[in-house]
Amino acid sequence: MNPVIALVGRPNVGKSTLFNRLTKTRDALVADFPGLTRDRKYGTGKVGGKPYTVIDTGGISGDEEGIDLMMAGQSLAAIDEADIVLFMVDARAGLNMADEAIANHLRVNQKKTWLVVNKTDGMDEEIGKSDFWTLGLGDPRAIAAEHGRNVTTLLEEVLSPYPEVEEDEDEDLHPELDDRGVRIGIIGRPNVGKSTLVNRLLGEERVVVYDQAGTTTDAVEIPFERRGKPYLLVDTAGIRRRKNVREVVEKFSIIKTLEAIKKCNVAVMVLDARQGLVEQDLHLLDFVLTSGRALVLVVNKWDGLESEAKEKMRSEIKRRLGFADYADLHFISALHGTAVGDLYPSIDRAFESAVARWSTKRLTTLLQDATQAHQPPMVNGRRIKLRMAHQGGANPPLIVVHGNQTNKLPEAYKRYLTNTFRKVLKVKGTPMRFEFRSGD
Ligand code: GDP
Ligand code: GDP
């Protein structure tokens, strides 16, 4: 797992400026975790062959009340998840009471903290740093996040204990199928029934779990076979192990969830029928959507509930998760094993859709049929023309459509095309992306 860097500091010291600089250089899986007053952001980046995850914590001042206090709680949670803390202060504003309050917290924290003095552009670095020695957090480092001054040097130093990572073992954002089978990631809030489901999936009669010399309980990937077909269960959060040594409180880790999403081919997102949809479900789902992963939605704890409740839940999901309507939805009871076996066909289909390949001929014919059934509109007296379609990528599928004036294509027409392609190509359980290119 990549080292996790948390950016901590009072508001306005330059955390998001630094976050943007640290994440902009590559195709980062960036997740937004909306807070009440400000988002907590997750992103990835790489310096000198070393990948890292970075969290912008939103900001704490040390004397919060009300909403601010909750936000501060989020920052503290981020510090807990981090391997490295960059504590940022502002050279222009000088030392501040809030800085001291945060420093007090970080001093008792065991984590590796670096004191980073930002906004030292246009000033002598030593003068910029001079205020902050009294914080007792070691040598201050002077940077200017906005201009990039000393940022790379700082990161190299901060990451020096961590190994370089070969290109191909790095951040495999889109793992393709290998002969070890489809990778299934079970994600969801604490207590929705993930570990019950995992044990149910692995404990099923027709499932053969391969014990890797007694390491299965700690393994991140658990291989198993069902009806002769291989699968891998991705268990970055240790949900399998938890069943055996029942942990009292599970600390919910966004980092581990992101890791599971990244490592799996299909994310199985578990919701709790007894609690309905809550804010955190939506955030988790947002991670899945951002990642482009194939998805199966599961409403668990269905036992003992009336069938009207099912309709209610279904319509609530439809209303609030409309953006994830490509995913199959299952109502199960992990505890009793009801409908759990039905997940496999959905998982298989979602994965097959995600990595499917279609010929240019097939896609172009489909495009022509669709435009014949419904012509694109006229713009400035000229009809928008869509001539050719080809596949630009897989997992998730990307369809590139070529034509004229495609930048004028109305959203409604794009939706019509998307739906038609989905239906005809029988794409289920994966997002599908379209790109329109214009010859004029
Ligand atoms: P955050 O609230 O800690 O995330 O702070 P922001 O990243 O939003 O930055 C607050 C303000 O400081 C913005 O106006 C930035 O443009 C400015 N700022 C950030 N980094 C630098 C820097 O290196 N030098 C200067 N002069 N201004 C900066
Ligand atoms: P996790 O934190 O998401 O791994 O959740 P657990 O698997 O530990 O389950 C949390 C609680 O919900 C436990 O008390 C389970 O027994 C209970 N639970 C799990 N699945 C079901 C189910 O299908 N029906 C009911 N009624 N309870 C369930």
UniProtKB/TrEMBL annotation:
**EngA-type G domain location:** 3-166, 182-355
Please provide the record's keywords in A-Z order. Answer: GTP-binding, Hydrolase, Nucleotide-binding, Repeat, Ribosome biogenesis
The UniProt GO MF terms for this protein read: hydrolase activity
UniProt binding sites for GTP 2: 188-195, 235-239, 300-303
Q: Note the CDD domains from the entry.
A: EngA1, EngA2
Assembly and oligomerization:
Associates with the 50S ribosomal subunit.
Q: Which family does it belong to?
A: Belongs to the TRAFAC class TrmE-Era-EngA-EngB-Septin-like GTPase superfamily. EngA (Der) GTPase family.
The entry's protein name is GTPase Der
Q: In which organism is this protein found?
A: Cobetia amphilecti
